[in-house]
Sequence to fold (440 residues):
Amino acid sequence: MERRRVLIIAYYWPPSGGSGVQRWLKFTKYLRDFGWEPVIYTPANPEYMALDNSLQSEIPEGVQVVKREILEPYSIYRALTGKKKGEIKPGFINSGGGASLFIRSNLFVPDPKCLWIYPSRRFLKKWLRDNPVDAIVSTGPPHSMHLIAKGVAKSLRIPWIADFRDPWTKMFTFKYMKYSAPVKALHSMLERRVVRGADVVLTVTSTIARELEEVRIGSAAGKGGEADRLKVPVITNGYDPADFPEGTTKLDKEFSITYTGLFVKSQNPVILWGILSKWVKQDPDFASVLKIRLVGHTDGTILQSIEEAELTPYLERIDYMSHDKVTELQSSSQLLLLSGGLEPESRGILTGKFFEYLAARRPIIGFGPKGGDMDIALGESEGGAMFDYDDERGARRWLEDRYAEYLAGGIPPADGNIENYSRRELTRRLALILDEITRK
Fold:
């Protein structure tokens, strides 16, 4: 049977590393199983936070990847600072504040990829007439990808799914970006046009879905069937069983607590560092086996907190490693650290690494808002426990229980039901949505 074709507009694509690439790389890996042939549109010369060439092997053989040059403002930044390609770290502009943040926020809307919107629209309108597809997907952030898809889908009358891996105006960083009032209004207008213009708006958590529904339903609220039609479906991120082969990884000998991925200031679990600091001073045996492992870009404030807690001797830092090596470390760690964030908006965050943590089958100690999406998912999956950022007593008791298990012969794996989060199952649900919008 001939497969239908879906064009996926994505900024992050191998050899990009990091979490932004995983969602649609994994969908691409399994879409053919459900009658869809993915075609990728991505920049030829993007600015990546990290490179991971190992991900190239996950792209199915024969998948068409269309690449076009992108002009980004980072070249100006480098000219002013003398930095070379590849030296820009996450948040390099908004962490500095001042003039650079104001320029980034108010001249490049909705994001620094905006200069790619109109060239991409022109190219794709012409390219698609010779290479037709049955549906278009855009995934953001960066939300410029949605604006590309909107112009193309409307012009060529192609069904379009707008996938939000993170919120737009409800993202917790939005309030720190020093947007002027007119630019804030412009963001809200663009968000409305995308959310109401797409045939389907898709996202990763129930909280984000509710926020997008408020924008999407708008004047349709109270109109029964029309409002129901405009509801936002949720397809979470997930894990790929192929990344976690059974019985191949030995547990660390140390009492290891591992965090993988980008670790930003608003996620700093200061209470954990305090618990561990007191513990190593009171118990030399515990101090002799403790290992804190941070894999990925870690904000300096977090490292400073660890230093102030006198935990640096127990710290292993790995700036970046390939995804296959990361999953090995996740599986070998005694415990996995999850930190959802101090911001109120973090209630709706359910990071991709959460599902990889579940697949690693190691107990998770999480910090974040109780009742949020991550807390609910962690409880349902029986993968570990979530604590408020000020719950020292509860977190200490949970860690002591795990340490007792460690001394008694080993911390048992977390064996909750996680099959519904497999990437293949999630892709099946995506294919059903694609089938639905192309039948109309």
